[in-house]
Design brief:
Radius of gyration: 15 Å
Oligomer: single chain
Strand content: under 5%
Shape: elongated
Largest sheet: none
Length: 83
């Protein structure tokens, strides 16, 4: 039952409005950086890493995940436009 309570606690922390905002903001920034040719997901996370220095650790990791996954989507924009 300890695992279930930890799972509920994790979902409760991840679904806070401030963390959802940081996930959406990271996704938008990731799409913008990913649309630039030559910048991959690792470079996008490295470029936007200083934005997370003043955040609490949970929000920072959620924002970095949003940047990474948004960057993966943004990288497909140039591939679709070339076809």
């Amino acid at each position: 039952m300890d695992i279930l309570s930890n799972l509920v606690t994790g979902f409760g922390q991840a679904l806070l409005p401030v963390n959802i905002f940081f996930a959406l903001a990271g996704g938008v920034m990731g799409v913008i950086v990913g649309a630039l040719p030559g910048l991959g997901s690792i470079a996008g996370v490295a470029l936007l890493l200083p934005l997370t220095f003043k955040l609490n650790p949970t929000s920072a990791i959620i924002m970095l995940a949003g940047i990474y996954y948004g960057n993966m989507f943004g990288g497909s924009i140039s591939a679709i436009l070339i076809n």
